[in-house]
Amino acid sequence: MDVKCIDCSELTGFVHSYPPIFHFGNSESPIALFSINPSESEFKSTSSLPAPFEKWTVTHRKDATPHHIESHLLRQDEYFTTGHHLEGWFGKVEEFLNKIGTHQWGQLSFGLEGRPSNVVHLDIVKCATKDNWSAVPDDEKPKYIANCSRYLISQVARPSLKVLLINGSSVHDALIETFAKHFTFEERHSEMFKTSNGRRCTLYRYVLRGRSGDHQLLLTGTSMRISREKGQFSNPEDREYAATRIQNWINDFV
């Protein structure tokens, strides 16, 4: 996959002027947090990630020059050092990550506010879609996911990557379906707890091994999105409980 990829150009929501975002932050991090796809807001002037194709005055990714591509990739690497993230989506996720302390890597963080960076953010679908993911018809979502799956597996196969974090049930379902074709599930575990507002939250723990047998991964996380600022998963005690369980599973694994 490259910046000029147009494999999904016939699908609803595809935007030629939104190049794929392969990762947010340090791509060599030992831990990756997964969501479905980037927000369209990443390509608007109000976003903390500058809108590269607006600045380059190109409206189609096929017209990007090597300079454009190099600049776009650099912005992904430096994402958490170049903008104000604590007020938005990533700030809420960072707050949850900071609750997790590991024996091997210390407190989890994207690297905000000068903290050491040990978590990279990856999306299953690399391109932002028009409006948002919910606007994509249900019968087309699997096509987006499938078109990005080969590149996603290459990212997960990086030997230095050890832990994969799930951000919500839709992310869980997409990852399980994709990984089933490429990994052996050595352990499967889930447990539910009731949140303060009476909803059920599932915590996941899987141990995966690559088909070659030399790469083991922990896949863990929650059915409720840790990025939620309001609603079903906003109570501090609920978030603390989930973070503690995930912390224990990480420390037991590594």
Describe this structure in words.
By secondary structure, the chain is of the alpha/beta class. It has a 6-stranded mixed beta sheet, with helices on both faces. It has a single domain (31-253), classed as Uracil-DNA Glycosylase, subunit E (3-Layer(aba) Sandwich), CATH 3.40.470. Strand 6 (183-194) and strand 7 form a beta hairpin. The mean pLDDT is 89. The chain has helices at residues 52-55, 66-77, 89-97, 141-156, 169-179, 236-253, and strands spanning 31-35, 101-102, 106-107, 119-123, 163-167, 183-194, 200-210, 216-222.
Provide key terms for this protein.
6 helices; six-stranded mixed β-sheet; Uracil-DNA Glycosylase, subunit E; alpha/beta; globular; about 250 residues; about 20% strand; single chain
How do the helices and strands line up, and which of them pair or pack?
Elements: E1 31-35, H1 52-55, H2 66-77, H3 89-97, E2 101-102, E3 106-107, E4 119-123, H4 141-156, E5 163-167, H5 169-179, E6 183-194, E7 200-210, E8 216-222, H6 236-253
Parallel strand pairs: 1-4, 1-5, 5-8
Antiparallel strand pairs: 2-3, 6-7, 7-8
